[in-house]
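Lab notebook, bench 4. The sequencing result for the construct came back, and we need a structural model before the next group meeting so we can plan mutations. Quick request posted to the team channel:

Model the 3D structure of this chain.
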Amino acid sequence: MNQFANSSDERNWAMFCHLASFSGVIIPFGNVVGPLILWSMKKDSSELVDREGKKSLNFQISMSIYIFVSAILVIVGIGILLLIGLALLNLIFVVLAIVKTLNGEDYQYPLSINFIK
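Done. Here's the predicted structure in token form:
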């Protein structure tokens, strides 16, 4: 049962907000900038895109903070393990968000701090 009665186009744009976080692999801070651009473009035209874009942005900002702290902890050795774990969690959680969004289901990112409400 779909929780959202939205069009396929809206679900696609919402999915692109999550998918855009992978631009961070190529562009520095692309994990935040990509979803920010898409969310800014479509937030006023779709409630679904607004909601999913905020979720993606909040999660990617949170992950950036966690990665920054982990990078500092590389000095004491534990940071390397944390960086690897965070990279895996980011990949897994974003893929889950993409699939859930395309299926019209709600997905809440774990470990996400709500900066944008």
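The longest helix spans residues 47-72.
Will bring this to the meeting.
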